[in-house]
Write a sequence for this structure.
């Protein structure tokens, strides 16, 4: 049986103040930036509650302010994945300038779009500006449900056209789908769609009841568990495609991966709730929150630096230093999973409340997971082999966000093979077919296709 979303607590709208500095504030790996609230669609589940008239979004950061923010992100988190989304980011006339500035700041810019406006010309311009890829939302494997959800007949067909335009321009493609009762039986179909599109990754988002999402019917706890089990099975069956569950940190428990642990298909930091630990969101007006699905501002970039907000914002400090409450706080996966903090806040009005969507019941003799992992940087896998100079040079040419995942994969393989030295040849032999050793787009080279998008059909 499904569950109807309850309206989010008004506590989510109360602003937090900057408080004591966090004792452990590693640089974020992912920054999600809603560049605009303006959108060409009216999606029924939009967490931002986007608008269709520019006059309704008059407080958005100017081009000059946006470029200053790019510089702050680059200084705080060099090599991070910078997701430029909306609303619809293609409606910002300065998008190419922002992308170019991000690439120049050693960030990995990815544009999150509904795909409807992504033509071949527009995709080539993004590639030339330095974009690594695009994330395109497609919520069904056939047009009917997607078009109804997005509020525009033909939206599915045009989004698929945007996927092909991006791929042909040499942009990496990440497909995104939000799961509902209407499409949860189509997980394998989404994988086929992603493979046919030559996608690098397929992200399944589990609904968080915020924004217009409070009007939607959510999955039950049992349905979440079943969907996560199927996603894990599909990832094991299709290692050439990165398949991830988002806003469902229980995936770490189901995979048996504790904090700091990874395997051949999952990075040691992926899948669990990243909010405030290695992830932040910037709103169109420059507010900073711990997650796109949490409206509470930790500070404003018009009043404080990003580095200070990241280090001292009350929500960030709590997420790095506190254990969750309720059943999440008693769980034997309370750190490695910890539940979805946005869902807990929306349901209970407390950032650290239990995530009541999780159906997991620990064994009777299970002890709470040790709290010593809280706030600690994720450990890297000790390599048994030394990197040769040519291999290190090749690794350094890979964009920062991908670089960490490639290093982990190669070191896993080298350890298993008991190698003494990692060479470029060994690196190339370990790459998945659809996620090769991607190099940063060369801004002067035009729309040459990156190796990451070649072969048959990032967030780690």
């Amino acid at each position: 049986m499904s569950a109807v979303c309850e309206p989010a607590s008004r506590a989510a709208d109360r602003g937090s103040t900057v408080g004591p500095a966090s004792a452990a504030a590693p640089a974020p790996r992912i920054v999600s930036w809603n560049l605009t609230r303006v959108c060409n669609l009216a999606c029924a589940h939009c967490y931002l509650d986007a608008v269709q008239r520019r006059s309704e979004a008059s407080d958005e950061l100017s081009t000059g302010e946006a470029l200053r923010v790019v510089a702050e992100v680059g200084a705080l988190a060099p090599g991070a994945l910078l997701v430029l989304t909306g609303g619809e980011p293609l409606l910002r006339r300065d998008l190419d300038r922002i992308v170019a500035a991000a690439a120049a700041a050693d960030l990995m810019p990815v544009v999150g779009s509904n795909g409807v406006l992504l033509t071949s010309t527009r995709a080539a311009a993004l590639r030339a500006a330095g974009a690594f890829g695009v994330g395109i939302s497609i919520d069904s494997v056939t047009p009917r449900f997607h078009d109804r959800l997005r509020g525009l007949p033909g939206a599915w067909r045009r989004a698929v056209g945007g996927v092909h335009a991006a791929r042909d321009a040499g942009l990496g493609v990440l497909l995104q789908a939000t799961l509902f009762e209407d499409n949860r039986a189509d997980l394998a179909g989404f994988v086929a769609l992603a493979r046919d599109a030559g996608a690098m990754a397929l992200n399944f988002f589990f609904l968080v009841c915020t924004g217009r999402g409070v009007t939607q019917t959510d999955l039950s706890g049992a349905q979440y568990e079943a969907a996560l089990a199927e996603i894990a099975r599909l990832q094991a069956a299709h290692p050439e495609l990165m398949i991830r569950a988002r806003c469902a940190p229980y995936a770490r428990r189901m995979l048996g991966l504790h904090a700091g642990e990874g395997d051949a298909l999952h990075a040691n930091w992926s899948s669990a709730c990243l909010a405030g630990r290695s992830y932040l969101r910037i709103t169109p007006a420059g507010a900073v929150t711990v997650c796109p699905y949490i409206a509470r501002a930790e500070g404003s970039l018009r009043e404080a630096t990003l580095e200070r907000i990241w280090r001292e914002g009350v929500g960030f400090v709590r997420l790095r230093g506190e254990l969750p409450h309720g059943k999440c706080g008693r769980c034997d996966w309370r750190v490695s999973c910890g539940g979805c903090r946005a869902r807990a806040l929306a349901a209970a009005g407390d950032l650290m409340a239990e995530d009541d969507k999780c159906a997991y019941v620990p064994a009777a003799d299970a002890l709470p997971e040790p709290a010593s992992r809280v706030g600690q940087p994720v450990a890297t896998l000790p390599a048994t082999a030394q990197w040769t100079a040519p291999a290190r040079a090749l690794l350094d040419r890979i964009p920062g966000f991908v670089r960490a995942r490639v290093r982990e994969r190669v070191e896993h393989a080298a350890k298993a093979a008991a190698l003494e030295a990692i060479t470029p040849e060994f690196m190339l032999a370990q790459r998945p077919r659809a996620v090769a050793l991607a190099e940063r787009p060369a801004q002067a080279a035009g729309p040459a296709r990156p190796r990451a998008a070649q072969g048959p059909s990032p967030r780690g």
